[in-house]
Amino acid sequence: MTMQERLKIHLGSITDLDVDAIVNAANTTLLGGGGVDGAIHRAAGPELLAECRALGGCQTGDAKITKGYNLKARQVIHTVGPVWKGGDHSEDDQLRSCYRRSFELLIRAKLHSIAFPAISAGAYGYPLEDAAEIAVRESVNALNHHRSIKLVVFACFDRTAEAVYERLLTKHF
Ligand code: AR6
Predict the structure, then answer these.
(1) What are the C-alpha distances in Å from 146 to residues 111, 149, 152?
(2) What is the mean pLDDT of residues 76-94?
(3) Measured from the CB, is residue 11 less than 6 Å from ligand 1?
(4) Each residue of 20-63: pLDDT tens digit?
(5) Which residues are CB-contacts of 100 (< 8 A; sequence separation ≥ 6)?
(6) In 3D, which of 125, 141, 115 has the Cα closest to residue 18?
(7) Which residues are known catalytic residues?
(8) CA–CA distance, 52 with 9 (Å, rounded to integer)
(9) Per-residue b/e over 33-65, b at no fewer than 16 CB within 10 Å?
């Protein structure tokens, strides 16, 4: 499979995707919130929150995995992106770590397909273009190193995000 076949863009909600794991842009409590986090908890149902309660939170840049419950996706990887504070507070390292830890958990669970939202690019204020650049770079890197990963989907909630990811993917290939 070529890199182009293994990297896709989806315009719409990440909750609609039939992949092994969708990634949630959560907060350190892992107890839900707004944005994509709220949408994932609503679609998965209350059992997701019950499992999350037992995880004891998650640090910024780290990730934890749960079942997907009522979602089409089999699993949810909850990661906590950095809050944007101007760019000189290691936000880029923390965001890179979110992608790396998510891929680690995917591989450890022997899963093959994953979908990401634009982590930190909503309520947490990370500039979308920079956040998407990190997302694409880390995904290409993971795909290059792990043949077991068959598909990475970038879930874009609106056409603005879709255009940003499309331009980056075109630039990379
Ligand atoms: N599917 C795909 N992408 C979505 C969806 C969806 N259903 N809904 C929103 N987005 P955000 P963050 C996009 O704010 O910046 C929560 O309250 C959205 O347009 O969800 O990491 C958590 O509990 C944006 O591009 O996450 C945390 O407290 C991207 O997803 C905090 O927000 C991320 O926006 C995390 O903030």
Answers:
(1) 11, 6, 12
(2) 98
(3) no
(4) 999 999 999 999 999 999 999 999 999 999 999 999 999 999 99
(5) 138, 142
(6) 115
(7) 37
(8) 28
(9) bebbbebbbebbeeebeebbeeeebbebbbbbb
Cβ 95 under 6 angstroms from ligand 1: no
Assigned token pair, 104: 């680690």
Task: Select from 58, 130, 134, 157 the residue to mutate for testing ligand 1; criterion: most ligand atoms less than 8 Å from CB.
Answer: 157
